[in-house]
Amino acid sequence: MKNTCIKAQEFFNKKLFAMLDKKLHLSTLRAPKFLPFLKQIIFLKKMTIEMTLSIIKPDATDRNLTGKINAKFEEAGLKIVAQKRMQLSDAMAGEFYSVHKARPFYNDLVKFMTSGPVVVQVLKGENAVLKNREIMGATNPANADAGTIRKEFALSIEANSVHGSDSLENAQNEIAYFFAGYEIIA
Ligand code: CMP
Hints:
Elements: H1 2-21, H2 35-46, E1 49-56, H3 58-62, H4 66-75, E2 79-86, H5 90-96, H6 106-113, E3 118-126, H7 128-136, H8 149-153, E4 162-164, H9 168-178
Antiparallel strand pairs: 1-3, 1-4, 2-3
This protein binds adenosine-3',5'-cyclic-monophosphate.
């Protein structure tokens, strides 16, 4: 697919330069014959490289599932560009999940996230935020699709094995919460 897109881009560039040589107006590009190439270039631009934060939660580290979970990310084409095993304090977990402070499950969530080691990591790849959420599956494992991490490994909605950022903006904030720039080897 990428090769086709690159060929389309090359073809498009050639046409563009030819038109500029001949001093043709850019509106000519709207001609129907150029439409497929324009569409492919827009598609290519949409496949952006992103970074997202992932946490392998205490229920998964406790069952020695870090390697199996990492294999899921790597098989799907995401690169683990930073990773560290940590014991979260009440303050760190509480602040990280502060968006859920008013929710009835907040105290239990903080207690669970501090009940054992976690592995925090940065995943990088094409559309990494969305891709990671697909690999993880639904928050509640009962609703997760077959083949997802939560379907295969999660024990409950709380002990659901992994966390992943839910937007690019949150990903940037969550990565900065756990990692200094020099720790991310992209
Ligand atoms: P996570 O993706 O880490 O984001 C917030 C977490 O709260 C979520 O995964 C769940 O593990 C946890 N949680 C516990 N109870 C609930 C609930 N009823 N609804 C949503 N999330 C919950």
